[in-house]
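Reopening: Volume-regulated anion channel subunit LRRC8C still failing for me.
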Amino acid sequence: MIPVTEFRQFSEQQPAFRVLKPWWDVFTDYLSVAMLMIGVFGCTLQVMQDKIICLPKRVQPSQNHSSVSNVSQAVASTTPLPPPKPSPTNPATVEMKGLKTDLDLQQYSFINQMCYERALHWYAKYFPYLVLIHTLVFMLCSNFWFKFPGSSSKIEHFISILGKCFDSPWTTRALSEVSGEDSEEKDNRKNNMSRSNTIQSGPEGSLVNSQSLKSIPEKFVVDKSTAGALDKKEGEQAKALFEKVKKFRLHVEEGDILYAMYVRQTVLKVIKFLIIIAYNSALVSKVQFTVDCNVDIQDMTGYKNFSCNHTMAHLFSKLSFCYLCFVSIYGLTCLYTLYWLFYRSLREYSFEYVRQETGIDDIPDVKNDFAFMLHMIDQYDPLYSKRFAVFLSEVSENKLKQLNLNNEWTPDKLRQKLQTNAHNRLELPLIMLSGLPDTVFEITELQSLKLEIIKNVMIPATIAQLDNLQELSLHQCSVKIHSAALSFLKENLKVLSVKFDDMRELPPWMYGLRNLEELYLVGSLSHDISKNVTLESLRDLKSLKILSIKSNVSKIPQAVVDVSSHLQKMCVHNDGTKLVMLNNLKKMTNLTELELVHCDLERIPHAVFSLLSLQELDLKENNLKSIEEIVSFQHLRKLTVLKLWHNSITYIPEHIKKLTSLERLAFSHNKIEVLPSHLFLCNKIRYLDLSYNDIRFIPPEVGVLQSLQYFSITCNKVESLPDELYFCKKLKTLKIGKNSLSVLSPKIGNLLFLSYLDIKGNHFEILPPELGDCRALKRAGLVVEDALFETLPSDVREQMKAE
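Support: Ran it again with your exact input. Result attached.
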């Protein structure tokens, strides 16, 4: 007998696939096993037992056609035989004899086979084989989507991820923390939400309902008392699961091959069910116990008509009715499956009940094959989809990242990264982390926090612990902030620096920092920035004194003009974009420092001459060629610093002599060839940079600059220095390298305060020993070739090397 286990390969896949079998698939599988047993049992009987037994029919002879021999045979056969005589061995046995046919065993076998093939109905012959074939087709249809390459790969991947998500310690922890909240905590949170139903959010620029970030401080800040419940290895495994789920969702939601495959195999089973019911109902009556057989084999057997007994007809008849019942139940189940497939929207799946039960509001709904598999999972056990949903939640992922961050970045490790920044504040730089560690807020001495390339930063209310925090830098970070944290920053933050790639990265809450004094914006802004809604709110920054915009604006934003009444310094670094329409500058009457860098300016803007409070002007990296307008600077009585470096200026007009208040003047990196003597009538100059030009001669009037402390003519074509230069006895820095000088005057010894001297790149052959009189000059401050330094007397060299 054929064991049923041989057919298991047609119905079984991996045991884990059972989670994708709803109750009707399991039920039809059992029905298939029952039908398979009917088929196997019938086939076994066909093989093991005689199929049909036939006997020749007796025909009454007529008077015209009967022969003597036939009559004698008939008489002999019909004449009763005398009863057997008792024998000594078997005295009571009586021998029974029937009708004589004179057929041997081989003839009977031949007759049985001929009648089986010719007279028996095909349905009666092949019924068990039909049952077996139909059942195998049902089994294949039920499990084809588990074996088809295009669908089985997705199913295997899904089952693998599902099992890991179900067993992950992070799933258990995330759900237990939600379910473990007592009713009092929930009521308190509801009351808090009713009092304040808005918090500030990042890139969208508007207030966001607090329910979209439900209980952010409670959920987002990891409790240290439970931080050790998930070790580092488990945390990394959970992190990897989040990434797998993201990629799998992206891949599976693109198509609906699983849904289509399941629908098609169900439709095929229904069609097959209808066919089986139709022809079986019509042919089941053909299974009869007695069969008349008329075959022309009289010349071999002497008979033509036979009466046959189908030995398994009675059993096959009962089996066929039983089989029809099983098929009917199977078909009705398939019809219900079709109803379930088409009545419900199985290509969309909503986690609404999970969101309500767990309180994790950001679990997204899914679609297509992903949704279909989750619907199938729900028929097995809804707990699977509930635990799986944890790995679809961004809040849950961020919470896990937060836990891993806190374990990795301990307070001691963070303190090792502390440094002093350019503003002389104690700063903590954090670069390319997955989030902001909660342990940062335990470093109470922190004054400046710098975050670079950190996505989804959440600033919690615990930032209020940083009493000394005054400066915050956000470089390419997307930031959300709790309302309590925003209140703290409004009162304490003095400096904010934001570097961004997209305007949506600008935090909208920065416009409410009423005590902010310095704002630095670095990133690409639209040329139509003055019409941008978000920047109009700069007017609320009542304490803003310094504003720096490094971008590509085409005009001064109107929002900047709105804060002009208290703005003291403005910097525009325009990255080569031409800055036009500068008339708004006239309204900045209190401006003391102005930087217009790389703005493609061809002339000095006339609006600048109206800034009577201006003290410093920097027009670096523009396209200035002529500066005749410089005469108008005489009205700016407070102007002390003028930087016209990195331009294309060819000459300095004589009007510069009228700028008598100048103390710092930078003309480096231009194309100046001649220095006018009138330049040195600005006798208050302390800093004069003329490096990287084409100057050949230094007028002796340079000696007038008795306040000069810094003088640079590096990289020019100067061949000699006037002795009057050494009358500038306050000179501390002298840069004359990369010229054509051949002699350094001994009068350099008059510069007693000289601490930095660059003479490298000239034609000197010897250095004057009078350099030893420059007591403040040390070897580190003397930039010269080593061979030339050796020309100094040994005592001078030792003096310079001494600390």
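DSSP finds 22 helices and 26 strands in the chain. If you still see a failure, please send the error message rather than a screenshot.
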